[in-house]
Amino acid sequence: MTHQATNDHIDTLLHESRVIAPSAEFVARARVSREDYDRMYRRSLDDPDGFWGDVAGELHWMRRWDRVLDWQEPHAQWFVGGQTNVAHNALDRQVAAGRGDKTAILWEGEDGEVRTYSYSELLREVKRAANALTALGVEQGDRVTLYLPLIPEAAIAMLACARIGAVHSVVFGGFSVSALADRLGDAGSKLLITADAGQRRGGLVGLKANADEAARNTPSLERMLVVCRADCGVPMQPGRDLWWHEALAEAGDEHEAAPLDSEHPLFVLYTSGSTGKPKGVLHTTGGYMVGTYLTTQAVFDLRDDDVYWCTADVGWVTGHSYSVYGPLLNGATVLMYEGAPNHPDWGRFWRLVERHRVTILYTAPTAIRSFMRQGDAIPAGYDLGSLRLLGSVGEPINPEAWMWYSRVIGGGRCPVVDTWWQTETGAIMLTTLPGAHPGKPGSAGLPMFGVEPAIMTRDGEELGPDDGGLLVIKRPWPSMLRTVYGDDERYRKTYWGEIPHVYFAGDGARRDADGYVTVMGRVDDVLNVSGHRLGTMEIESALVAHPAVAEAAVVGRPDEVKGEGVVAFVLPQSGFTVNAGELRAHVSREIGALARPDAIIVADALPKTRSGKIMRRFLRQIAAGKSIEGDTSTLEDPGVLDRLAATPVA
Ligand code: 6R9
């Protein structure tokens, strides 16, 4: 794969002018028309209390709120004084509305096993799990960490926490022991819910073994609940470990959802920032519920007979908001698939669509680009005629991939929605609505209800059409993060302290004359590898933890499939030689396979200013195979650049 090709993509993005209108048929049936959008958007800004009060009123509250919003910058409280329960709204409310027999979760394991849960069955399991958690001593406000494969128990455990007011912290099953231990320790979790193993590409991922090792360094941890997924005979520590199925079998199936304050914490989810330590993004009950409820129905044009598939793992925010909470709050049938997109072959996703008659597919550009490379013949071998809407999330989608997705997967009949949002925003912020707006390949689109975006300079000056700048949001919205868990100062500084009085997203963007926002990528030291956020500092800390490495600098380089690839410049410790394969394995162990460097450059020095600051700008140019541009005069040793450019890449 050449870097030139990716640069061509960026170039076409800049000159992209295609406008793809939804079909008249789609428009005629759409839940939100263009007129609806205009009217609703206007109202959401002019009368936010009325707008959000009406949306929240569609859900069940044990006590109605006194005030819609209390904004003491940078802290928002939504639906103040109200009491509700997200799990009750996702389950009991659906059963009461006559959806008891409707399929809530339709799950397919990597080995092809299928399990389904109707709304009544899911509710019964969640009630049992809630009782089991309570029996284990989990109380309102306690943190519970989940380290699970993508199996129904993951959703059940999340909903059980929500039901009793425990705060879940899901750690992606692909993260390593030390990444898990950091997140367990930071959250101070009492309970860890894991599985013996997960299935991935035909093999087993030993989650329980990782959990045991992580638990050793986590004093707060009291108990471990273990789902038997693979039946692979893991050791259980007496007094601490308990099988999930045994705990649930002993638990009763009567349970009333706890009435929780609207601002009661719902979950913490760790995400990478520009410093070494991941941030625990905290979301609360009422606002998150209202935000994911509304965006799921509007953006995905959801109706009762849809089979909705968001391919994200619950370890990421997309899996929280759009594999679990948003669709269940709308009474949808949700498909969950445990395994890899290319197992046992590249037809797997399309077989899933065909087999389960999927109507809405929501996935990431990195997956779309990988499928595209395999050619049109593979998807053409399956009946994808059930699909009616396609979505994209996680990173910028290049126009070629957008067009391919629309043409080959959508058969030219499905609108494509490119949704921009973040762990921090909780719900979709920028997108087109499928029956209201034409798509512009490469551009996310217009603001969702209540979202007031702007493009600004570092100094807070607002820029006009087509000027590139920083993406900010000018007012609070219901599903916004409330703080960084245990570090409110970091919350203030990172999000509301960069530019006064606006939320700083950390992305560069521009807006065209029609108001469509094109997001160009991160402006901080955060990489986006296959749609997953990784801090360069996190990877650098992992690298220098290896005895052979004295110093390390990590940058991204354009990658045709992954969006960005990881390039590591390392200085060996004197007396050691660096073995690239061994270093890659080390990073996998320290963080997870997703952080493995694609290229390692062993250097004798790094380009530093006289004050000792690494000039990453130059490293990025070298990593991308470009010639050096810019002022090199502040470098302590300008010769280092030529030496680096001539160094072989491992
Ligand atoms: C939902 C999610 C957030 C970062 C975000 C941006 C990038 C996400 C995008 C997109 C362009 C889109 N991003 N969606 N960039 N177009 N449609 O991915 O959350 O993991 O926190 O990542 O991802 O850079 O700032 P998260």
UniProtKB/TrEMBL annotation:
Purpose of the protein: Catalyzes the conversion of acetate into acetyl-CoA (AcCoA), an essential intermediate at the junction of anabolic and catabolic pathways. AcsA undergoes a two-step reaction. In the first half reaction, AcsA combines acetate with ATP to form acetyl-adenylate (AcAMP) intermediate. In the second half reaction, it can then transfer the acetyl group from AcAMP to the sulfhydryl group of CoA, forming the product AcCoA.
Swiss-Prot/TrEMBL keywords: Acetylation, ATP-binding, Ligase, Magnesium, Metal-binding, Nucleotide-binding
Top-level taxon of origin: Bacteria
- Give the species: Deinococcus rhizophilus
Specify which residues bind ATP according to the UniProt entry for this protein: G394, E395, P396, D418, T419, W420, W421, Q422, T423, D507, R522, R533
* Gene3D superfamilies for this protein: 3.30.300.30, N-terminal domain of ligase-like
Where do the AMP-dependent synthetase/ligase domain residues begin and end? 94-477
Catalytic activity reads: acetate + ATP + CoA = acetyl-CoA + AMP + diphosphate
Q: What is this protein called?
A: Acetyl-coenzyme A synthetase
Q: What is its EC number?
A: 6.2.1.1
PTMs per UniProt:
Acetylated. Deacetylation by the SIR2-homolog deacetylase activates the enzyme.
Tagged with keyword Magnesium = yes
Q: Which GO terms describe its molecular function?
A: acetate-CoA ligase activity
Record-listed CoA binding positions: R200, R201, G202, G203, T318, N342, S530
Its family remark reads: Belongs to the ATP-dependent AMP-binding enzyme family.
Residue ranges of domain Acetyl-coenzyme A synthetase N-terminal in the record: 37-90
Its needed co-factors are: Mg(2+)
N6-acetyllysine sites (modified residues): K613
The AMP-binding enzyme C-terminal domain is annotated at 538-613
Enzyme type, top EC level:
ligase
- Can you tell me which residues bind Mg(2+)? V544, H546, V549
